[in-house]
Design goal:
With about 300 residues, this protein is of the alpha/beta class. It contains twelve helices and twelve strands. Strands 2-1-3-4 form a four-stranded parallel sheet. Strands 5-8-9 form a three-stranded parallel sheet. The longest helix has 16 residues.
């Protein structure tokens, strides 16, 4: 099978489809597509276009379709087209292939979504809805996680490693930075990266949720003192981790009173009354430490007789 580097030829007309955007919308741009576009335009001199439907794909030399979520719907017919190439965890889960290094480490094309976003705003959408498309430089400083959580597609790594310098994806014209790192606090060089981020002078945030179980006094102090954008995000997935999480939250609150929220996974291990009870127990713990719950419902909640409680 040919790689993307072999497929993309100089001067081609390239179509790019964010399947999640078409099927219901998303507040986050697709980073892989922006990197493909950046590589195609600056290295291969190609014309790239964000496509907002699946019509007339045959007019393009190559079409790259990416989706993050498995529940995103795409037409079955696209898989039979010779010029169409699929990628992302939404199609392949943990088996999704990474981009070739020359594309993965290329500056994202932050203008890829610009025409689409301008059109939406002109037609009445609030600019704030598209802040991620307009205001943030986006990337990974580290990749990988040793946890191997059952609900996570990131199961092919055993540790966190350095992925890229901030300069690789930093757009100086954008006021903020956000990061998709899988488990930043598991990386031994976390302190150096925080200093690198601080040196940009731009507020930043980690979107995946930091691993509060790895928090130490040194990490808590450092994180509480950086130019952070918005609230901090951690995770509290299982009530069995209650003691460990409470110790970490007590430590964290000794250094900062800033807004802090924790992702709360539910409806994954079960969808019964016990799951509901454990969710409320975790919420109660967060309230004690003045933290906000961010409930993350696994899609199986739809099958539960308690579905109405899950969606309150």
């Amino acid at each position: 099978m040919k790689t993307y580097l072999q497929i993309i030829k100089t001067g081609q007309k390239i179509g790019l489809i964010d399947a999640d955007l078409i099927d219901g919308g998303t507040r986050h741009p697709n980073l892989a597509l922006m990197k493909i576009s950046g590589y195609c335009k600056t290295i291969k001199g190609c014309q790239t276009n964000l496509l907002t439907d699946y019509s007339r794909l045959e007019e393009y030399d190559q079409v790259f379709i990416s989706k993050v979520f498995s529940y995103t719907k795409t037409p079955e017919t696209i898989e039979k087209m010779q010029n169409v190439h699929l990628g992302g965890t939404g199609f392949f889960g943990a088996d999704a292939k990474p981009l070739p290094n020359k594309i993965e480490h290329h500056m994202p094309d932050y203008n890829l979504y610009l025409d689409y976003v301008i059109n939406k705003i002109q037609n009445g959408k609030k600019r704030s809805w598209y802040a991620d498309y307009l205001d943030y430089s986006i990337g990974f400083t580290t990749r990988g996680c040793f946890r191997h959580c059952e609900f996570c597609v990131n199961k092919n790594a055993n540790k966190a490693v350095r992925h890229s310098p901030v300069s690789e994806f930093l757009d100086p014209s954008r006021p903020y930075i956000y990061l998709w790192d899988d488990n930043f606090l598991a990386f031994s060089g976390w302190e150096d990266i925080l200093e690198e981020l601080q040196a940009t002078g731009k507020p930043f945030q980690f979107r995946q949720g930091l691993d509060i179980r790895l928090l130490t006094e040194k990490k808590a102090k450092a994180l509480s003192q950086v130019r952070y954008k918005g609230g901090y995000i951690f995770a509290f997935d299982h009530i069995e981790e209650k003691q460990e999480i409470e110790q970490a939250l007590k430590m964290w609150r000794a250094f900062t009173k800033k807004e802090t929220r924790l992702y709360l996974l539910c409806a994954f291990d079960s969808q019964d009354g016990n799951d509901i009870e454990n969710l409320f127990k975790r919420i109660k713990i967060l309230m004690h430490y003045q933290c906000l719950p961010y409930v993350m419902r696994f899609e199986d909640y739809e099958k539960s007789e308690w579905r109405g409680v899950y969606v309150i």
